[in-house]
Amino acid sequence: MDLSFLNPERLWVLAVIPFLVLLYVWALRRKSRTGMRFTNTAVLGRVVPRQSQWRRHLAVAMSLLSLITLVLAWSRPNGVDRVPRERATVVLVIDVSRSMAATDIAPNRLEAAQQLSIDFIDELPEQYNVAVVSMSGSPATRLPPTTDRTLARRAIDALALQDSTAVGDAIYVALSAIQMAPRSDDGSVAPGAIVLLSDGQNTAGRAPAQAAQQAEADGVPIHTIAYGTDNGSVDLDGVRERVPPDRELMQQIAQETGGTYASAESAGDLSRVYNSIRSSVGYEEVLTETTATWAGYGLAFAVVAALAAVSLGARWP
């Protein structure tokens, strides 16, 4: 867990810990040298009861750990927690270029993607808006943001193959779709995320890198899926052509925008990828003060240290 502190200047107190460790080591060595002066150890043993070395070390170690954790608590640490989003807009961008007719994923790439995309949106929280964008040479918003899952299913089912692939233009269309989402009472737009599924290379339109930069500037992560296998092929104008996905491009887009990247070479892979993305878009990371948690750790270490110290002075039968 990543930590930050509201009062980091208090962490300087931790500088005393190494000096306390050195003091303890010095005390142990001094005691060892003092014990060497007594030759009649039997008499010494009756006068001074023998103490357990490991309990002494445990008491000191727990005391130091208690001090460390209490100083951390005093510095008011913040942790990053994942909390469910109350609302969001998810734009599903699905490639409908001719390469989606490849049958390396049964019955073909498009039909498999349609079914699993429907499963994906059905399991999103009901209050989330869903939009659908088709990606071809002329990307278009097939469904503006809505919470109506029936309309979303129909929009996905109605997708049909078209020519070319304009990844950059599709991202711009998706960003525009996010702005169509209903605004809250204070006029703010719900947080948006784009899920982009593509099985080929960019062949038209504006540069994907430029579009990714715009998404990054808008604070919209793009979760990309490189869909299909390297052996997938289709007949284009009577010529059999291989249509491998452009994994490098998908990785670059995800990295630029703070989204996630995954490769899906089967229906099972795509299902698992969608499950992972659903978790990503369904939660947000927020800073929460964890002072009480660290204070609890300090108390627990202090209790163990106290018990170890008491056991050192107790005379066991």
Description of the structure:
This is VWA domain-containing protein. Pfam families: BatA (PF07584), VWA_2 (PF13519). Residues 89-277 form the VWFA domain. The chain crosses the membrane at residues 12-28, 58-75, 294-314. Keywords: Cell membrane, Membrane, Transmembrane, Transmembrane helix. The protein has 317 residues and is α/β, with parallel strands linked by helices. It folds into two domains: 3-80 and 288-313, no CATH class; 85-265, Rossmann fold, CATH 3.40.50. It has ten helices and eleven strands. The protein has helices spanning 16-35, 41-47, 53-74, 109-122, 149-157, 167-179, 208-218, 247-257, 267-282, 291-313, and strands at 3-5, 77-84, 89-95, 129-135, 140-146, 192-198, 222-227, 233-236, 239-242, 261-264, 283-289. The strands form three sheets. It has a six-stranded mixed sheet with strand order 5-4-3-6-7-10, sandwiched between helices. A three-stranded antiparallel sheet has the order 1-2-11. Helix 4 (109-122) runs antiparallel to helix 5 (149-157), helix 4 packs parallel to helix 9 (267-282) and helix 6 (167-179) packs parallel to helix 7 (208-218). It is elongated.
